[in-house]
Amino acid sequence: MVVGTDYSSPEMITPDSWHQSLSSDLTSGSSSLDSWWRKFNDPTLNRLIKTARDSNRTLAVAYERINEARAGLGVSRSQLFPTIDFGGAVSRGRSSQNLGTPSPPAGKTTDVYSTGLTAGWEVDVFGGVRRSIESSSATVEGTEELYRDTLVSLLADVALSYIEIRTFEERLTVAQRNLTAQQKSLDLTKARLDAGLSPELDVAQAETNLSNTRAILPQLRNGRSLAVNRLSILLGKYSAATETLLKGSKGIPSAPSSSFIGIPANLVRARPDIRAAERNLAAQNALVGVAEADLYPRFILAGNFDLQSLAASSLLESNSRNYAFGPNFQWNIFNAGRVRSQIAIEESRTKQLYMTYEQTVLAAVAQVEDSLSSVRNERDRISELRNATASATKAEELVTTNYTEGLVDFQNVLDAQRTVFSTEDALAASRGIIAAGYVSLFRALGGGTAMKPGPVDQNGKP
Q1: DSSP state of 307
Q2: Of 142-151, 265-274, 373-382, 388-397, where does mean pLDDT reach its minimum?
Q3: How many CB atoms lie within 10 A of CB 109?
Q4: Under 8 Å CB-to-CB from 113, ≥6 apart: which residues?
Q5: Which DSSP helix (H) or strand (E) runs through 213?
Q6: Which helix (H) or strand (E) holds 239?
Q7: d(CA 38, CA 64)
Q8: DSSP assignment, residue 29?
Q9: Measured between alpha carbons, how far is 312 from 298 in angstroms, rounded to an integer?
Q10: How far apart are CA 399 and CA 381, in angstroms?
Q11: Counting C-beta atoms within 10 Å of the first and last residue's C-beta, which end of the chain has fewer, N or C?
Q12: Beta bridge mates, 163
């Protein structure tokens, strides 16, 4: 007989397909997200990912929690076996002369030597210990899944920070390029002023425009510095070491040319946080049985074998033997409802974790939908931004030529340059948003088949 309810994995109904329509480079089919970061074809990103896996402190803590849970499982399993204690003692005592006891003689000092074994074994008749082992085993598996979830989040955060750094660098390049163009315009206005062809107002406006653009550079540099600091924490390094790893910029990583995202039902098997929630539910379900075991009697086999003597020289003789053994039981027949209240607590916790599991699945589906929407809509946006950048660049060339020929005033040049800078900066930012969108999608899908279920080895690798 085993108390409690046997566990069965909950069936979670998921959509048959994703609600968001797929982009041309996102096709539904067999999931292929193994080592997803390599899809960006960026050696620096690959190097950062490896460094994070080897050095991140949070990941190391998550692995130690696995060791803790495994040790807890060992404690639970030990309850199936007898306990044997070995000990010994030497004592000196004197009896009161006023008691008049004949043995030992009153007032005599006596030495007593003893050594022996004490054993006990609680027979798991009703399965309370087995349920405890079941709970501990599920806890180990859940902790391993939390480790994988930490790993998935870590790799995604590294990629997102790296993309943010490269995006700031690209925006700095755009700003520097526009500063060069604006400096040429300032030089042009000064030349025309010296020639008496333009008013001093044109020079003042050109200087203002140039200074405003220069004022953006410190903001972009600061944003990059903050992103480097965040990445350094993820890598377990200081900023100087991170900068060394970042040398040789190749720009914003290009989004993968194609990705297979699978079907929603696969999400339950792919995401470690969902698997962790299911294992936590299994562990809690077993604790109901552990609580129910207290409703029944406990049967214990106990015994002891000692050697006792008044002299150390005779301690090991057969006449020094002293032993006792036999079964006993204990049954708590009245506890004012404590046991049944504890059972109700465990049952309520099980219901809570079941609802938590359902909520985790719902949130996972929503995260994938959000990422799909972000990628799809940002791709539409970047297409328009490319057109806008090309048009703005052409317009700037035309209006600058017209200004040089005295056909338009300098305000038109200013407006054109501001538009070029704005659209080029937005285009760079959009490229970063798309790359980050793919990273978020890969994270929402569970990090890839490399994170599939399985034991975590002693090196902390799934």
Answers
A1: E
A2: 265-274
A3: 9
A4: 88, 89, 90, 308, 309, 310, 311, 312, 315
A5: helix 200-235
A6: helix 239-245
A7: 28
A8: S
A9: 39
A10: 26
A11: N
A12: none
3-state helix, strand, coil in the chain (%, to 5): 65, 10, 25
Residue 446 near residue 263 (C-beta atoms within 8 A)? no
pLDDT digits (tens, 9 = 90+) for 44-97: 999 999 999 999 999 999 999 999 999 999 999 999 899 999 998 888 877 776
Phi, psi of 83 (to 5 degrees): -110, 135
Task: Kindly state the tokens that stand for 240.
Answer: 């100087």
Q: Hey, what are 24's tokens? A: 């041309």
Q: Map tokens 């959509």 to a residue.
A: 15
Tally the C-alpha atoms within 13 A of residue 136's C-alpha that lie toward its C-beta: 20
Given the DSSP bridges, would you call strands 321-330 and 298-309 parallel, antiparallel or unpaired? Answer: antiparallel
- Residue partners of 319: CB distance under 8 A and separation at least 6: none
Closest CA to 400 of 416, 419, 386, 424: 416
Interatomic CA distance for residues 357 and 367, integer angstroms: 15
Q: How far apart are CA 335 and CA 20, in angstroms?
A: 57
How many whole angstroms from its chain centre is CA 428? 29
The pTM assigned to this predicted structure is 0.86
SS3 for 286-339 is HHHHHHHHHHCCEEEEEEEEEEEECCHHHCCCHHHEEEEEEEEEECCCCCCCHH
Cβ–Cβ < 8 Å for 267, 364:
yes
Closest CA to 451 of 43, 27, 57, 59: 59
CB 41 within 8 A of CB 254: yes
C-alpha distances in Å from residue 76, one per residue of 73, 79, 128, 310: 5, 6, 11, 41
For residues 45 and 253, the answer to whether their CB atoms sit within 8 Å is: yes
Cα separation, 184 vs 166, in Å, equals 27
Cα distance between residue 100 and residue 104, in whole Å: 10
Quick check: 312 and 154 in contact, CB under 8 A? Answer: no
- pLDDT, one tens digit per residue, over 138-189 is 999 999 999 999 999 999 999 999 999 999 999 999 999 999 999 999 999 9
**How many other C-beta atoms lie within 10 A of the C-beta of residue 209?**
22
Q: Which residues pair with 84 in a beta bridge?
A: 119
Cα–Cα distance measured from residue 152 to residue 271, given in angstroms and rounded to the nearest whole number: 9
CB neighbours of residue 66 within 10 Å = 20
Residue-wise burial string across 11-34, b where 16 or more C-beta atoms lie within 10 A, e elsewhere: ebeeeeebebeebeebeeeebebe
Single-letter amino acid, residue 144: E
